[in-house]
Design brief:
Oligomer: heterodimer
Number of strands of chain A: 0
Strand content of chain A: under 5%
Helix content of chain A: over 70%
Strand content of chain B: under 5%
Order of helices and strands of chain A: HHHH
Number of helices of chain B: 13
Largest sheet of chain A: none
Amino acid sequence: MISTFFLAIVITSLATYLSRLLGVVTSQKISEDSKIFRWFNCLAYSTLAALIARIVIYPLGVLADVDFYLRLIIVLLCIAMFFITKKNLVYPTVFSCILLSALSAFFKI
Amino acid sequence: MINKKYFLDGFFSIKGINSPALALAASFIAIGALLKNVGFSIQQSIFSTFFTYALPGSLVMAESLILGASLLNIFIAVWLVNLRLYPMTVSLMPLLMHKNQPKWKYYLSCHFVAVSSWLIVKDKYLNFDKRNRIDFWIGIGSATWLIAILSTIVGYLSSDYLNKDIMIGLAIVNPIYFICMMIDAMKTVQIKISVILGSILGPLFYSLSPEWCILYGGFVAGTFAYFVGEQND
């Protein structure tokens, strides 16, 4: 018997690959110097920014259980740290994980 | 076939301080643990990351299964959240296309389009001749994909040891990494406006439609940024 999980994975994979495949098909006709390419470039960055902002402000999963202001403070601290460490990505990412885990454990007590 | 030198250049670009390896590992460990909690077998979890390799999509799938959503609903929800991969692919592939390279490379390697690999290649593609960029990209994609799959396995196997506080900590790593990478990528007027306006409009449109807010916000912000940028160039 084919399980629901198996079908869910197949469907998720297809739904994901579809956008990537259509992207390649469209790319065949687009030159990197064209205006439409620059427009798509803007769309890619803006959509990503929208997605990441959504994840921080309206998260799915376990992050939703963390207070909004706590998430916001962590993000701002990590951005500050990114600049202070001359754009080192290791410090803010490791710091965010440890700090949020610790705060989450602390606030529950 | 694939030029080994450029492939390895790409593959080992995951070393160093800008590496997405940590962020990817943290988030796919969380996904592995989440899939185990949903009731997936380890084979299904590996299969899922192997064929999907897009974090928000896997998260939406897992959350939908917990809520008991239908397969059609899962398809639509995943498609909407991953539709961002379309503009990402279109803004990447023309940079990598070369007439002497076979087409299959593009159709297969588009599977590697995900935020982390995309941000790296956009940062580094100019260091390579156009002809070699696709092999460099396949190297980056293989490395990030491999990390995602291995981390899913680690997360699945260690899920009993990951309490909720640790899961929350792991979940914040990826957004933090992406925010820092995006800030670093803001080098032109167009990208600056795209990123800032996108991050404002995405959540703002959430009240209109949680499913469509990313696409509405992204479309309006990106189009506005494009026109402002064209005026200023």
